[in-house]
Amino acid sequence: MARVTTPLNDTQIKNAKPKPKEYNLADGQGLALRIKTNGTKQWLFNYEKPYTKARTNISLGTYPETSLEQARQKRLDARKLLAQDLDPKEHRDGLQSDQEEAHAQTLEHVAGRWFEVKKSKVTPAYAEDIWRSLKIHIFPSLGKIPISKITAPKAISTLEPIAAKGNLETIKRLCQRINEIMIHALNVGLISANPLAGIHSEFKKPTTTNMPTLTPAELPELMRAINQASIKRLTRCLIEWQLHTMVRPSEAAEARWSEIDTKAALWTIPAENEA
Fold first, then answer.
1. Burial class (CB in 10 A: 0-12, 13-18, 19+), 67
2. What are the pLDDT digits (tens) for 64-75?
């Protein structure tokens, strides 16, 4: 005659105390609650593996985080998989692996791999600006989405609030940067086409305004204004240095004494610092 197992109840589970050795409280149909020596109560489902018929256990969680009712539902789910000759543990591990792979291919993670290459090609200050702009404007809404699920409408929707504020230069830079990320994803085989290639056309072009020029006669007044301005000495020196050398702002800010030959009156700007 087959052995009949009396199902557990919450009172039995709550009153179960640890013993010098681990022991199980059976609920039937392979489900049991293991009481460990430290007092932990772990749900286990014992089953025969498909094809090999070897017996094994799969953990279904701990009590009380996983209730008796939830454990029974998990047992039912596992039995349904076994009816299809699917191993519950292998099935769960496969789902977890898929989730981890999907997480590794989110826009933010792919952007991180792209940025490792990009930052080696630009100045540190520019690299910092690139990553900061992505963290502020792109990652909050698109960062957790798999790169293969990024669409033009999603990207445009993310950028529209920035455009509404009139920050068209920011829009231009962001379009360029996320397109570079998508091209990287395309090159490494994560996507088969770049759906963001044309998103820049959905926004107005920024208006280029040339900075006003000064005549030589106006320079003394500029120097007096700089001298009297309430700015840090370092900033004042940087402005004067740029006026004397006529280089780009980023090149002036990145200047190092080791680059300057005072005897020859020669400043050699490293190639990586050239804007």
1. middle
2. 999 999 999 999
